[in-house]
Amino acid sequence: MAVQRGKAVIDRDYTISRIDPRIYGGFIEHMGRCVYGGIYDPKHAEADASGFRQDVLAMVQELQVPMIRYPGGNFVSGFRWEDSVGPKAERPVRMDAAWKSIEPNEVGLNEFHGWADRAGSEVMMAVNLGTRGVEAAAQLLEYCNVKGGTAFSELRKKHGRTEPYDYKVWCLGNEMDGPWQICNKSAEEYGVLARETAKVMKRIDPSIELVACGSSSMNLPTFPQWDATVMELIYEQADYLSVHLYIDNKEDDLDNYLLKGIQMDRYIESITATCDYVKAKKRSSKVMNLSFDEWNVVPGNWKKNDVEPWTFAPALCEGNYSMADAVVFGNMIISLLKHSDRVKIACLAQLVNVFGPVMTSSDGTAWKQSVYYPYLHASLFGRGIAMNVQAEVPAVTTQHFTDAPMLDSVAVMDEQTGDLTIFAVNRSSSDALELSLELRGFGGEYTLCERLVMKHEDGGAYNSSTDQTRVVPEQLETVAVNHSFCTVELEPMSWNVLRFRA
Ligand code: AHR
């Protein structure tokens, strides 16, 4: 193994932004085995009285997810929210045309709220701007957020929930630019519908924040004109523009794949520039922030829609996340943090089974995939002020990237304690990186109190129900920090967490 050398400086003045905790959000959709057979499985030995699996809940709780987007995703574009409330025995079984699955409505808004509450998460609700529109969105908001005295708030009370849910963040539809979307729209059609829906929703509850649909992929021909047009129509009413990205290794080229976190940087920077173009055009002082409300890597061996249509809880979008996936995934988290001045909300899509960091199997087990750990580390140690890491390191060239730095990293300072955490990925599959670090301008001496690494000689190694700990973090020996300098070696293809104590 070759060892490359590089250096990096973190200066007390290199601050990016205070990180909005909602950047560690998640996503649960009525899709595949995310809800049914995932978080909810009443026949399972681990199910509680309301049918939710306690072992799965514990794994989600450990992640400290501040907010969970619900109930879709593509699902929301055909969703009749009224079907999912009231006595379970009276709820209809529906054909969910988004995923060609059977939706029994056994888990609905009230059950999900109870689960999210126990997970320690707020709910980020979505309204259907596919088959439905302003009226259904307004009535759902009334059901959720109005105290009482009106038809839908009283209906909620009748359903056993006295206090309003008071959901703060609402998605105005989902991926409405996508030809796969139920009632896919042009940017003009969507922009007008979203704006009119937003107007009514904010009259009902002025405290809510609204997320307008941005492009669902950089690869769609409508990107980024979609975003510009939608923003022009809804700049005053929206609070965030949504961004979605799933990174895959469809070229089956490991070295190229390991650099693909760069796609996320480019995407965020393009969308930010598009929003700022509209801001300038409107002579507005309002800054449009981003809600990266679907992001993930796609496991190499995933099965997309290789299932019988019109079945209940088919195994959609499931696969085993590898060591290489964990590095690219960690790099996506670093990208979100590097852009935390504009990305205020992000949702890992999704939390269980469907592209899930938590998996359940038919033999009844639940386990953590490789990507669970970078998410856990970032959520636990990545709260505070994001700081730039200025690095000089060797570059890598692959089929899609020229002279890309082999290292990507970001630092986070906990304002209360002064503790500093560096998240770093070594994106070379073959070479280690000996990195000289300087902590500049912090005053006082830091100690490196913890050093976590995820590495594996086999980039394809993954955890499974029968081998749950093949790719897990390890604690490495710490090294001395002398007058704010230290040197660490970052293994090839690794995710690293360096925790410095003030
Ligand atoms: O997360 C799976 C699906 O991917 C979501 O339903 C959709 O919004 C996206 O295309």
Automatic annotation (TrEMBL):
It catalyses: Hydrolysis of terminal non-reducing alpha-L-arabinofuranoside residues in alpha-L-arabinosides. It comes from the Bacteria. Residues 293-494 form the Alpha-L-arabinofuranosidase C-terminal domain. Keywords: Carbohydrate metabolism, Glycosidase, Hydrolase. It holds the Pfam family ASD1_dom. Its EC number is 3.2.1.55. GO terms for molecular function: alpha-L-arabinofuranosidase activity. SMART domains: Alpha-L-AF_C (SM00813). Pathway: Glycan metabolism. InterPro entries: Alpha-L-AF_C, ASD1_cat, GH, Glyco_hydro_b. Gene3D superfamilies: Glycosidases, Golgi alpha-mannosidase II. It is an enzyme of class 3 (hydrolase). One of its GO terms (biological process) is polysaccharide catabolic process. Homohexamer; trimer of dimers. Belongs to the glycosyl hydrolase 51 family. This is non-reducing end alpha-L-arabinofuranosidase. It comes from Paenibacillus cremeus.
